UniProtKB/TrEMBL annotation:
<keyword id="KW-0811">Translocation</keyword>
<dbReference type="InterPro" id="IPR003369">
    <property type="entry name" value="TatA/B/E"/>
</dbReference>
<feature type="region of interest" description="Disordered">
    <location>
        <begin position="81"/>
        <end position="109"/>
    </location>
</feature>
<keyword id="KW-1133">Transmembrane helix</keyword>
<dbReference type="GO" id="GO:0016020">
    <property type="term" value="C:membrane"/>
</dbReference>
<keyword id="KW-0653">Protein transport</keyword>
<protein>
    <recommendedName>
        <fullName>Sec-independent protein translocase protein TatB</fullName>
    </recommendedName>
</protein>
<dbReference type="GO" id="GO:0015031">
    <property type="term" value="P:protein transport"/>
</dbReference>
<keyword id="KW-0813">Transport</keyword>
<keyword id="KW-0812">Transmembrane</keyword>
<keyword id="KW-0472">Membrane</keyword>
<dbReference type="Pfam" id="PF02416">
    <property type="entry name" value="TatA_B_E"/>
</dbReference>
Length: 109
């Protein structure tokens, strides 16, 4: 979720020590942890309420599917992944019935 490296994490810890001091830092950390737990509980509750409101027809609904990037990957690019797989190619079907040839227009080409 966050791309924080080791050096950046150490810098954040040092800044927190300087800003809050060693005596206030445990209290601030516990308050931040409590707030994060409450935020997660609220998000889980909202997700469960959404699933309950949608009903049994959408039992397999995943809220993460609403992310546009994941939606495109799942619904549009999934078929392209299937084409990359080795295997027999589907037989070509004629465009016109009874083996008729399409009209030829030399000016169109």
């Amino acid at each position: 979720m966050f791309d924080v490296g080791l050096g950046e994490a150490l810098l954040l810890v040092v800044l927190a020590l300087i800003i809050f001091g060693p005596d206030q830092l445990p209290k601030v950390a516990s308050q931040a942890g409590r707030a994060l737990r409450q935020l997660r509980a609220m998000a889980n509750s909202a997700r469960d309420d959404l699933r309950e409101g949608l009903g049994p027809e959408f039992a397999d609904f995943d809220v993460a599917d609403l992310n546009p990037r994941r939606f495109v990957r799942k619904h549009l690019l999934e078929d392209l992944d299937d084409l990359d797989q080795p295997g027999p190619m589907p037989a070509e079907e004629p465009l016109l019935p009874f083996g008729e040839r399409p009209p030829y227009d030399p000016e169109a080409t």
